[in-house]
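Title: Prediction job returns without error message
Component: structure pipeline
Severity: low
Priority: P3
Assignee: unassigned

Description:
Job completed but the reporter wants confirmation the result is attached to the right record. Sequence as submitted:
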Amino acid sequence: MPKSILVTGGTKGIGKAIIRRFAAEGFAIFTCARNEDDLAQLKREIEGDFPAVEFSYKVADLSKKEEVKAFASAVKEVFIPDVLINNTGVFLPGAIFDEPEGNFELMMQTNLYSAYYLVREFADEMIARKSGHIFSMGSIAGLTAYANGGSYAISKWAMLGMTKCLRQELLPHGLKVTSVMPGATLTASWEGVDIPEERFMKAGDVAESVWSAYNLSPQSVVEEIVIRPQLGDL
């Protein structure tokens, strides 16, 4: 049976790059997004480029607890993942003191709570198996405060804290936990900005970092991956 990977928010950017990297190694894949057309297109791409790979998906809005649980149930019908990538996220710019009502709640629910609920859905099975690697997709914004990104930064600081706690809780059970904190990466989130492409990182570089961290021996773990554009943060 092939190794398996679960990637939330897998149709674009870093999530899609991670899926392609692990598909190239023969991993069975399960992913989700809110848009079924995007998921169907990704399925065609993966099955066309990697015909031996098992690819499954489910439409889900992971900002809603009940949809996280329904998604997890669907995944369990196929596999218990060897690798779990908590990648779902949303960025809405704004200052803490005057951003639109509801922005804080939406970003916390999407960026943090979805990961919390999903980890709880699979942790017992991973512990019983004594193997698994959980990656939490954070951000440089979880290390450095930026103006006009308050609630997003709060959610990513919280994601880092949760992941650090999870690392300590799961290490006795043989499970690895890694925080991934990318800087500005050329994805759909930056569409329309007037910034040269060379100022951004490539999503494939983040995926390659995740693949490399996954491939260490059982005696070692990369606890944090901080990866920035060569020319500095934007």
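Comment from assignee: result matches the submitted record. The chain has six helices and seven strands.
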